[in-house]
Each structure stands twice: as structure tokens, then as C-alpha cells.
């Protein structure tokens, strides 16, 4: 499957493979084994005490001045949500601004969700509830009637249920969206993940990553992903990447998480495969989704940077503007 109206940039690529109507990771259909979820719930976390006493949360730099600043920048809003401005166009990735089902947000935003204005595009990597949150999208659309959503194949039904008037465009892997003005190119690219929101929709909606490209800057947003061969494929086709927004949390226990999420070592390996410049971590510290202690991802990244394996590490506070051209 692909969107036949969009350009496909990988030579000879026919589209995303489906098996019995369900999307695959490349050629392989991945159905998470929920016996492993039961095993996780019934087993004792070997880091239980360490996690219990780890009260780490990311720092928050309060304020909304970045919303009106016209310089090229990105601002982490927690989890996988970034405010990104390139060439005067503003993007918001995977906006999740509130508590999610069964999980409370551990750390605040730099400003009220209603203050997030002048947003041109939502970049939605996949439809898990910690990445596609209906309440957050409703808030953004109410305060940004001009906003459009760029989303994976078959995400349209979910977006129409958010608001039937929200414009959106779906893409498959290796496709270029055509809604964005020519000063920024936006590509939907692979990730190794899966989909489920309800009982009967396993892998019915695609997942992926994004590349934002200007004539002098590339920003790669990895979405949710396990380690697979797609990073090398992306680099070969479009690399190197100037800025890599990489997920580094929710990786323990490994038997449950490793095919869906990157641990810090894997994230750095993927970043090096992408020949990345700036490494900015995400998907940690905002929601408690897994067994690792809250501060562990940051501590491991700092160790990797000190060893020389990771060049270009930048760990911004939530709400702290990172001026892109100053960092490259």
C-alpha cells in the first residue's frame, strides 16, 4: 500500500506490505505476544528498589516566548512532543500534552497547551495513545484552525473521530508529503514498531518516522522504533542527518520492549548509522511506561558521550529552545 498521489523516493519501492490487511515491518508481520505482558506483570522488577527511590524528572524551562520567535529551533515538550520551526514553518510532533489512559504525566509543560499557537503541521508518527492523543489534538486544532496533520496510512479514521474538519494527508514509507510549502520537504520513513488502540485493530494503521529537510538542514524524528536495518537504508537514501531526535526510554524488560523501543545504546548505534550530528533524546522522563529507573537513560547517554561513542549529545530541558543553526 501507498498513497498513489504522493511521490515515492525509494527507487523500485512498491509500498508498505500488508498481510491479511495488517501492516508489516518490512516483510515481517509483528504481533506482540501478550503472554509476555502477563509475564512482565507477574514478575519482579530486578531494579524495583532503585526505581522506587529514583525521583528524576526532566527540568522545565517555563515560558512561551519560543512560540513567537521566528528563528529555526526546536523545543522539547516532553515524551515525543517537539515544537519545531524551520524556514518560518512550524511543526508539532506527536503532541501528548495531558495524562494518558492509566498513566499520569510526571512533569509539566513550559506553557499551557492553549498557548501553543501558530502551528502549521502536526507530525503523527503512529497511533499508540502516548503518541496520538485525541484531547491534545483537539486542543491544538481549536487554537490553530489552520493546522494540518501529516500521518501514516489508514490513520484517517482516527483523525476524523478527533474532528471531522481537521485536514490531513496520509503517507506510506519513503513518501514525500505534498502539503508543505517548498521551503521544507517532509518525508515519511520507516520505523520498526506496531499498532493497536482497540481490540480488533492490530497493525491496521501504519507507523513510521519523519525527515524534515531544508536546503541546508535535515532533522530526523525517529518516532517509536526498535533497532532494525531501516536506519542504514534511510542514511543511504537521505543521509547524513544534522539533527536526530531519538527515543531512549521504555526499554525494560528487554524481552517485552526490545522489538518496539530503543535502549540508549541502541539509540546511539542507530544515530551513528544515520551519521547524525546533534543527538537529542526523547521518550523518557515524562510518563512511567516501563521498568528502568527514571534517570537511567540520561545517565547511560552521558556515559556514552564521555566514552566518545556518542558525539553531539544535547539534553535540553522541557521548554528550552535549541537554536538549530547555532548547534550544527
Automatic annotation (TrEMBL):
Xref: SUPFAM superfamilies: Metallo-hydrolase/oxidoreductase
Listed Gene3D superfamilies: Ribonuclease Z/Hydroxyacylglutathione hydrolase-like
Chain ranges passing through the membrane: none
A single Gene Ontology CC term: cytoplasm
Domain of life of the organism encoding this protein: Bacteria
Pfam families xrefs: Lactamase_B_2
Metallo-beta-lactamase domain segment(s): 91-284
Name the UniProt record assigns to this protein: Metallo-beta-lactamase domain-containing protein
Amino acid at each position: 500500500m501507498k498513497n498513489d498521489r504522493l511521490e515515492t523516493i525509494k527507487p523500485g519501492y512498491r509500498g508498505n506490505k500488508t498481510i491479511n490487511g495488517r501492516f508489516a515491518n518490512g516483510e515481517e508481520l509483528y504481533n506482540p505476544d501478550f503472554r509476555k505482558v502477563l509475564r512482565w506483570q507477574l514478575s519482579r522488577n530486578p531494579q524495583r528498589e532503585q526505581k522506587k527511590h529514583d525521583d528524576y524528572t526532566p527540568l522545565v524551562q517555563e515560558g512561551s516566548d519560543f512560540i513567537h520567535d521566528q528563528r529555526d529551533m526546536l523545543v522539547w515538550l516532553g515524551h515525543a512532543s517537539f515544537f519545531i520551526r524551520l524556514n518560518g514553518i512550524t511543526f508539532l510532533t506527536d503532541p501528548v500534552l495531558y495524562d494518558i489512559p492509566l498513566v499520569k504525566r510526571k512533569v509539566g509543560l513550559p506553557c499551557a497547551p492553549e498557548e501553543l499557537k501558530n502551528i502549521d503541521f502536526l507530525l503523527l508518527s503512529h497511533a499508540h495513545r502516548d503518541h496520538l492523543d485525541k484531547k491534545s489534538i483537539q486542543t491544538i486544532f481549536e487554537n490553530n484552525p489552520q493546522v494540518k496533520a501529516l500521518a501514516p496510512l489508514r490513520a484517517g479514521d482516527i483523525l476524523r473521530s478527533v474532528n471531522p474538519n481537521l485536514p490531513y494527508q496520509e503517507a506510506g514509507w519513503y513518501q514525500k508529503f505534498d502539503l508543505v510549502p517548498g521551503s521544507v520537504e517532509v518525508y515519511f520513513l520507516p520505523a520498526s514498531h506496531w499498532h493497536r488502540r482497540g481490540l480488533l485493530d492490530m497493525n491496521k494503521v501504519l507507523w513510521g518516522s519523519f525527515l524534515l529537510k531544508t536546503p541546508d538542514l535535515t532533522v530526523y524524528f525517529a518516532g517509536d522504533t526498535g533497532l532494525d536495518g531501516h536506519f542504514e537504508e534511510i542514511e543511504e537514501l537521505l543521509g547524513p542527518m544534522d539533527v536526530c531526535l531519538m527515543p531512549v526510554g521504555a526499554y525494560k524488560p528487554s524481552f517485552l520492549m526490545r522489538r518496539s523501543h530503543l535502549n540508549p545504546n541502541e539509540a546511539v548505534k542507530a544515530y551513528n548509522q544515520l551519521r547524525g550530528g546533534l543527538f537529542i533524546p526523547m521518550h523518557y522522563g515524562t510518563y512511567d511506561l516501563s521498568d528502568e529507573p527514571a534517570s537511567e537513560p540520561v545517565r547511560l547517554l552521558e556515559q556514552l558521550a564521555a566514552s566518545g561513542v556518542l558525539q553531539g549529545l544535547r539534553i535540553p530541558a522541557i521548554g528550552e529552545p535549541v537554536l538549530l543553526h547555532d548547534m550544527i
